[in-house]
Specification:
By secondary structure, the protein is α/β, with parallel strands linked by helices. It has helices at 33-45, 61-70, 95-109, 134-143, 157-166, 187-193, 227-243, 250-259, 274-282, 290-304; strands at 3-5, 12-14, 18-19, 50-52, 78-83, 114-120, 147-154, 171-175, 196-200, 264-267.
Length: 311
């Protein structure tokens, strides 16, 4: 697995990491902690060194699973966690809540520091360092060695630009994929400013994996799309499939499109099984041609940007 710099932090991350939201998470219909442990172990063996989690993932179990497997190799892996949503499901982005939240994460992870700590999709006013006092507390935690870098998990270009313009954040977790390229115009500034970009939801909640079509139906976490939205997404999947080179899976092409953006440090797809995790990592073995990358961008610009898909 190739490593990429996380902005100017001095941290090197595997270009495909492991997103920890699905690890033994009952919200996803998953409860097998042993499979989650195998996913993490096999990810390490595949060359993955970057693991993303949060206190609220699996009600704290994601951090516990990662802690069990990563503790023996802690010096050689990079851990990103968040604050704002507790294992119990409560939300609290207040400055006094930062340290207790982090201490809880450190205990579950079995470590004395996390490499990256992110505000977990906070209200937009808390992304403005001119008025939010959370960043002073984050600077203290950084000075104490409890975190190496901090930033925000966010969804929009305007949010990324606000963070970069008003805070000393060195990392951002950004919603970005072939069907959602809205933040992309801010990527050049992030690279110039030394902000590492971590891409979340790279497979558009599974649509870009090729698993879903216009007749698909959903329940649980993904039970949020109307029949009309599903039909439109299915049509876009068919158009995306036409752009995928022969011999390349849709999922690999979707991840390779993101890796073709030089400003991106890492992608964090989730995985429900060892096979799925290993398949995600295999996407890094090849690259898309510049022509295919441009065609995927054109699909967004022509078909989606004028009428964005609802999340």
């Amino acid at each position: 697995m190739k490593l990429r710099p996380l902005g100017d932090t001095g941290i090197q991350v595997s270009e495909i990491g492991l997103g920890g939201w699905q690890l033994a998470n009952p919200d996803w219909g998953l409860s097998d902690a042993s499979e989650a442990l195998r996913i993490v172990q096999q990810s390490i063996e595949a060359g993955c060194n970057f693991f993303d989690t949060a206190p609220g993932y699996g009600h704290g179990l994601s951090e516990e699973v990662l802690g069990q497997v990563l503790k023996p190799v802690r010096k050689s892996v990079i851990i990103c966690s968040k604050f704002g949503h507790s294992p119990a499901g409560a939300s609290d982005f207040s400055t006094p809540a930062i340290r207790p939240s982090l201490e809880g994460s450190l205990k579950r992870l079995g470590t004395d520091h996390v490499d990256i700590l992110l505000l977990h999709n906070p209200p937009r006013e808390l992304m403005d360092g001119r008025s939010a006092d959370q960043y002073a507390e984050l600077d203290k935690l950084k000075a104490e060695g409890k975190i190496r870098a901090y930033g925000i998990s966010l969804d929009w270009r305007a949010d990324l630009e606000l963070m970069m313009g008003t805070t000393a954040s060195q990392a951002a977790e950004v919603l970005f994929n072939a069907f959602y390229q809205e933040p992309m115009p801010a990527f050049a500034r992030a690279q110039k400013q030394g902000v590492g970009l971590i891409v979340k939801v790279p497979l558009d909640s599974g649509w870009l994996s090729g698993r879903y079509r216009a007749d698909s139906r959903f329940e649980g976490v993904r039970d949020r799309w109307s029949p009309e939205v599903i039909a439109r997404r299915g049509a876009l999947v068919a158009k995306f499939a036409e752009l995928v080179p022969p011999g390349t899976s849709m999922g690999h092409a979707a991840l390779q499109f993101i890796l073709a953006q030089p400003q991106v440090s890492a992608i964090i797809p989730g995985a429900r099984s060892v096979a799925q995790a290993l398949d995600n990592f295999a996407a890094a073995d090849k690259q898309l041609s510049p022509e295919t990358v441009q065609a995927i961008h054109a699909l967004w610009a022509e078909e989606i940007e004028p009428d964005p898909l609802p999340w």
